[in-house]
Amino acid sequence: MKRIFMVIAAAAITIMATAQNERPTNWFIGAAGGLNIGFDGKEYISREFSHSGNGTALDVYFGKFFNNTLGFRAGYQGLTISDQYIDYGKLDYTYAHADLLLRCWEFLVPYVHAGAAKVENFKPAGGIGLMVPIRLSNRVSVIPDLKATAYPGAVFPEGDGFGRTISGTVGLRINLGKVGSKPEPEVVEPIPVPVVAPAPKPEPEPEPVVEEPKPTVQEVVEQINKSFKADALFDFDSAKIRPDAIPILDKAVAWLNEFPTVKGVIEGHTDSRGSEEYNQGLSERRAKAVYDYLVDKGINKFRLTYKGFGESRPVATNETDEGRQLNRRIVLVLDEE
């Protein structure tokens, strides 16, 4: 029997060392099975007459924890005490018990118990016990349980009238209803260190846009008249506009569109070579050719008129080639409203 006690004690110490913390809950149920040892203190020198025996144990129960420390359990333990020798036969042992649970530590639950035990007749009984919960989850735990019980009355026929049993069981306990949980440790967030962003580099100021002054109407007229040389617009003794003169006239169209309120007269002039009558007709035809082109390009015909002056209004001498070239010209004379 001493060996059995040593095995039970070693198992209890091992279980206690590896047990997990238990957390509070409400109602629970459980069942366990294991080994029961019964004896009545009547031990002789010879093992053959020792009043002790062992048998199987089964315990079913229900209970409730009221808070983190206090709870109760009620159950029915059915065991069989059998003598190691056939001299005494077998005696059944049952125990209806109520337990006061004291959860002093999260991994150890000692308790006291009392109830009615039956060997041959029902007798009051009581004792102490120790549970070592091993939590598998918040709802299920493995419960190793070591219980010592004492009651009046011999266990075996020739006992001393005071019975004792020790039972060791292992079973499952299932928590019912709302399952409690152990509060997680508060996580202290580190105080963030402010990061000082570098001062933004000042953006370079945009360079001021210098707008070129818009030309005046008179300046535009001067530009047109500088380009309206007769030799640049027409072949010798011709009133037909040359193809290479088209860009010159298109530029004049753009200028006139930029100043839509301006009106003017297109004048034609020649040098003194040829008859006066011929030069008059040539100057009129050339002025009309320029007028027709500008109108065809979208200039309102009511803004322009044309007129020929022949050789009557020279701007230079007709005695030299350079002078005669200056006298052959088309002039735009503007009349601004």
Features of the shown structure:
37% strand, eight-stranded antiparallel beta barrel, 22% helix, alpha+beta, 337 residues, rod-shaped
Q: Sketch the major β-sheet.
A: 8 strands, antiparallel, barrel
Query: How would you describe the shape?
Result: rod-shaped
Number of helices: 6
SSE sequence, one letter per element: HEEEEEEEEEHHHEHEHE
Q: Give the strand content.
A: 35-45%
Helix content range: 10-25%
Major β-sheet strand ordering: 1-2-3-4-5-6-8-9
Q: How far is it from the N-terminal to the C-terminal residue, by CA? A: 137 Å
Query: Which structural category fits the helices and strands?
Result: alpha+beta
Number of strands: 12
Using only C-alpha atoms, the radius of gyration works out to 64 Å
Account of the protein in words:
The chain has an 8-stranded antiparallel barrel with strand order 1-2-3-4-5-6-8-9. The chain has a 3-stranded mixed sheet with strand order 11-10-12. 22% of the residues lie in helices and 37% in strands. The radius of gyration is 64 Å and the shape is rod-shaped. The protein starts with a helix and ends with a strand. With 337 residues, the chain is an alpha+beta fold. The chain is built from 6 helices and 12 strands. About 5% of the residues have low confidence. Strand 10, helix 5 and strand 11 form a beta-alpha-beta unit.
Short structural description:
The protein has 337 residues and is an alpha+beta fold.
Please specify the SSE layout and strand pairing:
Elements: H1 2-18, E1 27-39, E2 52-65, E3 70-83, E4 90-102, E5 109-118, E6 122-131, E7 134-135, E8 140-152, E9 162-175, H2 217-227, H3 230-233, H4 246-258, E10 262-269, H5 276-296, E11 304-308, H6 321-327, E12 329-336
Parallel strand pairs: 10-11
Antiparallel strand pairs: 1-2, 1-9, 2-3, 3-4, 4-5, 5-6, 6-8, 7-8, 8-9, 10-12
